[in-house]
Amino acid sequence: MKERIKLIWDFRGPDAMKIAKHHAIHLHEFAEKEALNNPLTGVESISKMHFVAYLVVDKSVMIAVRDALKPHRGTIFMI
């Protein structure tokens, strides 16, 4: 199995959930437009005031996606 990287965008504040959900829509659209291999997108709750939107990509394309989208951070994706 290929190594995958989870690119993460943090959103904080009272509107964090709404903004993270909206951002995830754009991440999904980007993944479709760029024909990324088996991308995963979504939103996770860290706390009531902190949500993240994420995009999981193959390590082989991570640099290009990172440079295009400027995530706040990233981590190795574990299933």
Give a verbal description of the structure:
This protein has 79 residues and is of the alpha+beta class. The protein has a single domain (4-76), classed as 2-Layer Sandwich (Alpha-Beta Plaits), CATH 3.30.70. It has 2 helices and 4 strands; from the N terminus they run E-H-E-E-H-E. The chain has helices at residues 16-33, 59-69; strands at 4-12, 40-47, 50-58, 73-76. The chain has a 4-stranded antiparallel beta sheet.
Total domain count: 1
Instruction: Give, in spatial order, the strands making up the sheet with the most strands.
Output: 2-3-1-4
Give the structural class: alpha+beta
How many β strands by DSSP? Answer: 4
Count of alpha/pi helices? 2
Rg, nearest Å: 12 Å
Query: Quaternary status of these chains?
Result: single chain
**What is the succession of H and E elements?**
EHEEHE
Strand content: 35-45%
Helix content: 25-40%
Named CATH architecture: 2-Layer Sandwich
CATH topology: Alpha-Beta Plaits
The CATH C-level class name: Alpha Beta
The global form is: globular
